[in-house]
Amino acid sequence: MEIWLILIFLGVAKGIANQSNPTTTTTTTQWQQQQQQPQYYHSNDSLQQKQQLPAVDALIGAEFSQLHEPHLTRTSVIFGLTKVANESNVNARCESQLRQVQRGILSKQPWAMKVLDASGTKPSGFVYGQNYWLGSREACKGVQSPVGITLSKNFDRVMHYGLITQQAPFDMDYRVVYLRHNSPWQVEIKLMSEQIIHIGLCLPRACSSEEVKQLAGEYVSRGMFAENDIFDIRPEVVYMKDLQLRDVFFQRSSFRLLVATALATGALMLCAQQLLVGKKLTPNGEETQESGGLAPAESELWRALHSLLRWERLQKLVSCYDVPSNWSKIFAVRENKAHEIPVMNGLRSICAIWIMIFHVVWFMYFTVHNKTVLITYAEQAFFQYVSSAPLLVDVFFTISGFLQTYNFLRNSSQLEEVRRNSWRKNLQLFGKLLFHRYLRLGPLYLVVMLCVDLTYAYIGDTSVYHINERFDEMCSKHWWRNLFFIQNLFNHRDMCANWSWSLACEMQFFILANVLLFLYAKHPKLTKILVATILISSTVWSYGIGLSIKFQLSFDAAFATGTEIYTSPFVRILPYIMGAITAWFLLEKPGSQQLVLSDMQERSCWHFALFIFFSCIYSTIKRDLGSLLAISLFVLGRLCFSLSICWVIAGSAQGRGVWWSRLLEAKGFQHLSRLSYAIYLLNPLVIAFFYSLTSASTHADPFMLCVVTCGFAVIVYLLSILFSLAFEFPYSNLSSLLLKKRDANKPKSA
Going by C-beta distance under 8 Å and a sequence separation of 6 or more, which residues neighbour residue 600? Predict the structure, then answer.
């Protein structure tokens, strides 16, 4: 009898509400559900009342289904997929489980509500780039297992306790479907993958990825997507990911090569340690003839190493991998010698960190949900030091051009050898110099390429983000370009690790500089004419390319013209030539012909060089310039920028300077300078990897960016030490060892 009274009461109340105000029917019912349902878990009523409640729940659930099913179909992708699923597009088990999800949501079962909540829907911010409708990957995991949280029973709570304890009746997986939208209601910056919507879905494991992709295609093609009506999204399904690492990952050639390289390096380090222990065991640090400087052999492995390491040449090779020795070289801080140019240590260190800060912002762009705001930050005056950081690559080019010419011209014996040699012997000498250059730069660079291939293959499978630059695919196709340092001669979108373009430029400039220096040793006038021709040609080429492609300083135009302007060796050679000319001027011009300045004039020139440096950094604060002005600012700005660096380097080489240049000459920069190569190579990889591991998009915020940058700086610094110890310093030692052997074998002149 009581249950009938309750049902009659509910019907009368509903009728009165409909007559008085039909528009509030849904709101009233929702309010009743919110107020009544949580109380079921804390009611102390009689058993009879508890038995009556399921009937009331069924009535309310039916009303909820009738009122909200159309709304859920159009606003919730996961619910929409359950509506379009049928026996023709999914397997029977998948269809059955999707129907269970649908019924569970409509009947408000806690596990199903968690599925609905874990799946993505459109958040606010679409106009400024919010395309990450990811839901919650962790919440989807909570559907399959109880939430690991302990709550006191001493407090009353309005929550459904099933949210913590209730699990799905079948296995669920979190997946991401990617849609390309064509909405005119989103700011389009044209910096890759902006029109890809990421939708996270908590789905039954029984549904295959292809089936889910087909369901998503049917869902959006039927016009059931409410956001399509509002923002004219017109979506099309691109692909989907199950975020599981595929078995083919461990079959990649890069995986096998990297494992083999790591094992070989570890074995060589172990052998070097064995040699070191053997030397310590001999009295007075002298090696005995019997032991050959080796520790006692205590196992078959050590006996084999013992016999191998008796070979003197192998001992010298293995000693290059001595970890304590290389560690001391990395951290050594000493007084600067007379022939050194200490300001280079500061320039290298600061520019490497500065470029890393730029990469933190650059790779953040692909994970932030307010991309437009991030770009507005980059164009503000305060943040020009970040957005103009790519200009700092010219600092490394200027230093390289200076050192290449400076070291060659200072080596009088080598210079005389080049003058005496025939073209065939000079060709052999040229090949040896190129080999040693490759030996010093190549190993670390190639190991990083292997890491790039593996890392991007991993995040391509497991990251929730759409990875626009699939370096794993590019490295598999175009690895030979990186092997020969020619990747910058091709489209920048097809590069394996596109930040390595500058290393390719460095190697190409090194080859050209050596050709010109060899020629200078025999034909100085002809070489001067050629250098001047190259300098003028580079300037004319830059202007011609810039005007033909209508170059602009905006970020989208700069990215689109990367192949023609940014990575082109014909455009980027200018600072290298300026550095080389500065070195030639210092060494070839006698002191009487050099510029003589008073102390006041010299200090003014130093401060003016600093002013030029920062003026070039901040010169792009106004970016909406015409093509002629833009390319003029690009070419002449880089010329002035490299001249300011040349002044600093030349002044330090002559022992002059002011207070800020003395800071750059501080001994503390010696350590960071030795790691600058590894920092430059590793920081984009580390930053991209950690960003890709996040399961939710980030918000561009300057203060949080500072904290994130500090964290990346520490991680990159530690990894740079590890990679330098294993793959840079051993081969630098080997190069020095081979050069010493070559010098020792040279016939001594009378």
Answer: none
Query: In the 3-class helix/strand/coil scheme, how is 690-725 assigned residue by residue?
Result: HHHHCCCCECCCHHHHHHHHHHHHHHHHHHHHHHHH
Nearest to 464 by CA among 68, 183, 200: 200
Are 679 and 716 in contact by the 8 Å Cβ rule? The answer is yes
**CA 483, 489, 495: angle at the middle one, nearest 5?**
60
Tell me how long the chain is: 750
Q: Determine the 3-state secondary structure of 201 from DSSP.
A: strand
Query: Mean pLDDT of all residues in the chain?
Result: 85
What is the CB-side half-sphere exposure of residue 213 using CA atoms within 13 A? 11
Give all strands of the β-sheet with 196-204 in edge-to-edge order: 132-133, 196-204, 172-180, 236-241
pLDDT attached to residue 457: 95
Structure tokens at 511: 């080859």
Q: What is residue 154's three-state secondary structure? A: coil
| Three-state DSSP class for residue 316 | helix
Tell me the pLDDT tens digit for each residue of 323-372.
999 999 999 998 887 778 999 999 999 999 999 999 999 999 889 998 88
3-state helix, strand, coil in the chain (%, to 5): 70, 5, 25
Residue 192 gets the label, from left (phi > 0), alpha (psi -120 to 50) or beta, of: left
Residues 311, 313: Cα–Cα separation, whole Å: 6
Confidence label for 30 from pLDDT (cuts 50, 70 and 90): very low
Query: How much is the average pLDDT of 227-243?
Result: 87
Give mean pLDDT, residues 289-304: 56
Kindly provide the residue ranges of all beta strands, DSSP E only, lying in 55-171, ordered along the sequence.
132-133
DSSP 612-625: HHHHHHTGGG----
Q: Residue 298 carries which side chain, given as an amino acid letter?
A: E
Q: Where does 525-576 show beta strands of DSSP type E?
A: none
Whole-Å CA distances, 284 to 277, 288, 695: 13, 10, 59
The partner residues of 202 in beta bridges, in order of sequence, read 174
pLDDT at 580 over 80: yes
